[in-house]
Design a protein that fits this description.
The strands form two sheets. Strands 1, 2, 5, 6, 7, 8 and 9 form a seven-stranded antiparallel sheet that branches. The chain is 7% helix and 39% strand. A hairpin with a 5-residue loop joins β6 (105-112) and β7. By secondary structure, it is mainly beta. It has one domain (20-159): Pnp Oxidase, Chain A, CATH 2.30.110.
């Protein structure tokens, strides 16, 4: 059995943005062919207020907003994107998916080091698909890959701090 992970204090190079995996729900299998993940971004409202006798305008923390995340991948036979996107669709059944499990999911994003080991992990909470592009513009004169994408609304994310890069040998 290998050594347990420890923090590598000798690492100076930043991690690469092209080594990552995405997981939907509690799945242990990554989503196939994801080529791009939009950045995780949050912002908080600023509440300005004054106190009597204080000439400085004070600032307090207001509500926090989490930006949608876009996932993009090459079009394959894998049905993960379309199945989830259809959960919020009103088709012939007359209403969206009644199960929150079908509509909202946790999403896990793992950033990998050069050896393919997860070193940063983010859990994105209560995601649902607000936009789905099944096909791009098709152009017989272009030399491109067909991409599909989904936009995920979410109610926050957090870093899983239990991961650390293994120390160099």
């Amino acid at each position: 059995m290998g050594k347990p992970f420890t923090v590598n204090i000798n690492r100076y190079d930043p991690y690469k943005t092209y080594r990552f995996l995405v997981y939907f729900g509690g799945s242990t299998t990554p989503v196939a062919a994801v080529s791009k993940v939009g950045g995780l971004k949050r912002s908080s409202d600023v509440i300005e207020y004054k106190e009597g006798g204080n000439p400085i305008i004070l600032k307090g923390l207001g509500r926090t907003k989490y930006e949608p995340i876009t996932l993009e991948r090459g079009l394959t036979q894998d049905q993960d994107f379309v199945t989830w996107a259809n959960a919020s669709q009103v088709l012939d059944k007359g209403s969206p998916a009644t199960s929150l499990k079908a509509l909202r999911r946790e999403v896990r994003i793992d950033l990998l080091n050069e050896e393919g080991q997860p070193v940063w992990r983010f859990i994105v909470h209560r995601c649902w698909v607000s936009e789905y592009q099944a096909l791009p513009d098709l152009d017989a004169g272009a030399n491109a890959i067909a991409l599909e994408h989904i936009k995920l609304e979410n109610e926050g994310w957090e870093q899983d701090t239990t991961l650390a890069e293994p120390a160099e040998q």
